[in-house]
Amino acid sequence: CSGLHGSTLSYQGIIYSVNEGCGFPCRRKHETKMILRDHSGIMLPGMNAIMGPTGSGKTSLLDVLAGRKDPKGLKGGTVLLDGHPMDSGFRLISGYVVQDDVIMGTLSVRENIEFSANLRLAQQGAKRSDWEQEKQQRVDNVIRELGLTESARHQVGTDMIRGVSGGERKRCNIGMELITSPSVLFLDEPTTGLDANTATAIIRLLYRLSRNGRTVIFSIHQPRYSIFQNFDRLTLMHHGEVVFHGPSLDAVPYFSSIGTNCGCHLPLCFFPARTKNMNRGKKHNGSCDDDDDVERGEDSMEKGGSLELAKAYRSCHHWADTQRRLEGIGNVAAVPVLIRSHYATRFHYQLYIVCGRTVKNMLRNPQTSFMQYFINTLFAVLVGLIYWQISDEPPAAIQNRMGVFFFLIINLVFANLSAVELFLYERVLFMHESSSGYYRTSAYFLSKVFADLLPNRIVPIVIFAAISYFMIG
């Protein structure tokens, strides 16, 4: 990992908006809501934090840079990787960790990372056995680098299965992205939902990864000072506007220079609720309460307004330095941020790997399968006893068989409604893995047909039909 060369991600004139519908469906009016307003900046190798209050556009900017936003909403701007427009190969050298842990809970930590490795690493070399050995070596290195050796064989956990801790779960998500040795790593609020110690450990892990030559770009809401001091560069946002972009250590002096009432020298509606001054004040005289400072910072921001702060930023030397560096990188015509068309593995191999995961998930969570077989067998015996060896003489034979067909159709319909829930339950998982280039949509769908719908839906119906057929006569 130390041999990685971090990439420079630059963006200029990014404008992103969405259409919002309002009113009744028959008279729905569509209004355009501006999310990002003329964003420009440079993300260098190291720790790049995107900060701001809720609704400021942090995640939207992160998604645009990662190429995960709908191109229709991108009204202008360019995103360059090392001075070149990004193409479909960008996802092969980048990773994206979503805010909510998207992971298969019935699998172990190692199995989840191996799943990512099997689908996202293209075979190198002539011998498959040598490549499999190299792939396992890479999985071992990632597990060791993330400190997951002791929990590697433990299940991640679900609502019904106790698994690893929240910090280990987050590290497993990061490991699934690190398996490709990405030069650029995106993370959407990696500390959300974690306690203070775990959040600090995650940020320090990202700091170590950035020092190995990676460009780490992440959004974060309001970190502690112990977390903030690990940042190299900072992008502050408010209502879709950039109010600061530059070295993190220059943020406090900059806001002080424009006369912003930061409350203990920090704009608290943006970043650290605890600073050296605050900690020192608390230690000596108990002054500088967090809540009071947050209120003062928020009041100051409401008075100043995002437009005034954005205007002030555009007149400072940080903005001028950024524009000068962007001009040095070069201007190119606007192109789609990312077009996903390539996969690291072939279709039949994707189908094999996803089928294997589906079968493992089914075997380790057998309640659904057991209930399908039990209910169909019980209902078949019940119908068979009610219509035991019915006569073949009309009109009773016709009436009885019509009743049988009614029960058969009702069972066929309601017994398979749970198949719809299957796709809804894994919807978020599928969307993340598909957008990250794990597999094709067709491979995922066919894997569900072969590994779940066939054993859990079709086979129980065949058993039901066989039992009821011979009992009815």
UniProtKB/TrEMBL annotation:
ABC transporter domain residues: 9-264
Keyword ATP-binding in record: yes
Residues that span the membrane, as ranges: 370-390, 402-425, 454-472
Top-level taxon in the UniProt lineage: Eukaryota
Residue ranges, annotated region (Disordered): 280-300
Molecular function GO labels: ABC-type transporter activity; ATP binding; ATP hydrolysis activity; efflux transmembrane transporter activity; organic anion transmembrane transporter activity
Classification via Pfam families: ABC2_membrane (PF01061), ABC_tran (PF00005)
Subcellular location: Membrane
SUPFAM superfamilies in UniProt: P-loop containing nucleoside triphosphate hydrolases
GO CC entries: apical plasma membrane
UniProt entry keywords in alphabetical sequence: ATP-binding, Membrane, Nucleotide-binding, Transmembrane, Transmembrane helix, Transport
PROSITE patterns registered for this protein in UniProt: ABC_TRANSPORTER_2
Topology relative to the membrane: Multi-pass membrane protein
Family according to the record: Belongs to the ABC transporter superfamily. ABCG family. Eye pigment precursor importer (TC 3.A.1.204) subfamily.
Full protein name: ATP-binding cassette, sub-family G (WHITE), member 2b
Organism: Petromyzon marinus (Sea lamprey)
